[in-house]
Amino acid sequence: MNPLLTVFDTPFETPPFHLIKNEHFKPAIISLIESSRVEIDQIISNAEPASFHNTVEALEGTGRRLDEVSEIFFNLNSAETSDVLQQLAAEISPILTEFNNEIMQNPGLFARVKSVYDQKEKLNLEGESVMLLIKTYKGFIRSGANLSGKDKDRFKEISMELSKSTLKFGENVLAETNSFQLILADENDLVGIPTGIKDQAAAAAKEEGHEGKWLFSLHAPSYIPFVEYADNRVLREKMYRAYASKCFQGNEYDNQELVIQIVKLRAGLASLLGYPTYADYVLEERMAETPSKVYSFLNEMFDRSLLKAQNEVKEIRQFISDKGGDIELEKWDWAYYAQKLKKSKFDLNDEMLRPYFKLEYCLEGIFNIAKKLYG
Fold first, then answer.
1. 273-297: pLDDT as tens digits
2. Are 374 and 10 in contact (CB under 8 A)?
3. Phi/psi of residue 182, each to 5°?
4. Reported pTM
């Protein structure tokens, strides 16, 4: 039995990850799409006139389990991905995009939603109900419900291509991050790096078959402390350049052409919907609302922070000089010297907090939670 298609028999109905297997996801999602179609058809075929309750509220309640299972899958793919999960994502993402287009461009469903929206002033709705009605109606408009036949088809094509391209973009970033390894055999190269970080690097190296060495990667728990603490400036530069040039090296994970493709697709989608730019389309539903407000905010931030930033650069340079350094401050130096300056001024650094967040305490807490949830 597919656990994703049954009620989660766990405290608070949390996902039973110990029962879920990769092969459960796609069949579950396809099955739940069919169930959601039935729910949608019931709304459309309702003989009663469209109302907030039988249309907007009913639509909001459809596909809940499909959303839940989709979130489980994509969160798992982000947190603990694998080749199998990535292949599944490439298959599942277009299926979900196609289904979303099917719903949001359904003329019968949109007609009912529009009927309710057009009489919103007479419905005496309040608070969340008003917001739900407006958000639902605008969601249809922003998904191409008002487009003509050819434009609707083009919208579907673009949204499908975007779902594949953006997924591939993320996969390339992850693959490039995973592929980089800085393996060190000389302990002198580790000068400045805290013991805890070195122990982690030694464990990582051992796991990869490099016992007696130290392995650093571009993952944040490895990369950040390395560029903050490693005295070896050449290696800091190597790590920084590898991090900053991910998917920009002309290899199999290169995203340069993909970025151009995504930008063109987004521009085409915005143009179809009548927006001057994709930024206008995205920001319409966000706090900033318009690109002009974003630029105004950024310019204000720039004006207010420029002097502070200049003073910080000056202070870092003076600190380097006082320590006998004779270098031009570069990007791979900033975190390193900022950490040293903080230690000098306040006798504080990030490693001093480590005893208060010991791994064994975290693991014990996770174990106790899991025990309560699953027994």
1. 999 999 999 999 999 999 999 999 9
2. yes
3. -105, 105
4. 0.84
